[in-house]
Request: fold
Amino acid sequence: MFSKILVPLDGSSLSEKALDPAVEMASKNDSEIILLEAVQDSLVAVPEARYHVPPKEVYRSAVMSMKYLRNIASRLRMEGIRVRCHVLEGDPCSSILSYAHNEDVDVIVMSTHGRSGLSRMVMGSVASKVATTTHRPVVLVKDFHSASKVHEHAA
Reply:
């Protein structure tokens, strides 16, 4: 049914909650899991400051992301799962949507904070934007109690 399963991660334990359902789907369908992380310039919200971010900082962030994804991929391969890893630079939502389209994935599996109402409007949600924008099936894994910590990209 699904041959390519896209799992966007951001280095948090919350995002990794999407791995279990993705692995279950992959095992049942002999599918490939594609792990994706979008790295973004930390000053992207302040365009005037962007000129002061050395390109090597964005590169370093991408390298750390790839190490993170390869570590997860290694664990999944030990379970017999076929896995690929990709790191893209840019806005997470746009990167996920673009990659899903270009790679023609069958389903996107990702976690969400499970926020609703005003909290969701104020905070925004990559998962929500992806789910409402794509025409592909999206499996959202909710976790209401996670106090996740994003991995550090600085070496």
